Amino acid sequence: VKASVGANELCNQMLAYAGRGARTTEVLDCNNLVVEIGGLLRVAISKKVSLDYALGDGPLGIVADPGQIRQVLMNLILNASEATAQRPGVVHIELLHLHEGPDAPAWVELRVRDAGEGVPRACERSIFQAFERGALDPADPNPGVGLGLALARGLARDLGGDLVLEPAGERGASFLLTLALAS
User: Fold this and answer.
1) Residue 169: what pLDDT?
2) At residue 136, what are phi and psi to the nearest 5 degrees?
3) Over the stretch 53-73, which tens digit does the pLDDT of each residue have?
């Protein structure tokens, strides 16, 4: 049963990655989504990792498929917690509302930053390619299916936004998801 559920999830991820998955959209508040996903993942991530939230002011509504946007958030938070899990650390999740003028569209920025080792320079250009994760650490006993970041970026772009790896500082990695605010 576990194998068939896993195969179903993998097929759904591959269909979403290829842009062929079924989708229903509704207006969702990013603040609520982040807190909900963080609460769900609390039991799945290392006890050494804590989640730190900096939520946006007021509701930050986006138009998205609930399952797909939850998948994006789960991938980003799980990746950050896995990168941090080798020692005690914090995953920072920050939401901002950006509005550059009366005629410019409003955006939601979601930044997920970890305290891990960071992304090796050699992998920065290919980090969003499907099945790239296994190449980050060949000794990783749990390389996953390798669709997480590729799927997250594809879904973000499908929603008119984007997902990028921000330049690394001293430690860790920072991913920035931008999505259009619902009008």
Assistant:
1) 66
2) -65, -40
3) 999 888 899 998 888 888 889
Please give the backbone phi and psi of residue 57, each rounded to the nearest 5 degrees, phi first. Answer: -75, 125
For the entire predicted model, the pTM comes to: 0.79
Q: Which of 159, 116, 151, 104 is nearest to 132 (CA)?
A: 151
Query: In 3D, which of 107, 83, 80 has the Cα closest to residue 96?
Result: 107
Structure tokens, 64: 């998205």
Mean pLDDT, rounded, for 10-32: 75
Reading the block at residue 10, the tokens are: 């993998």
What is the rounded radius of gyration, in angstroms, for the C-alpha atoms of the chain? Answer: 16
Tokens (6 digits) for 45: 């991530």
Calpha distance 104→50 (Å, rounded): 36
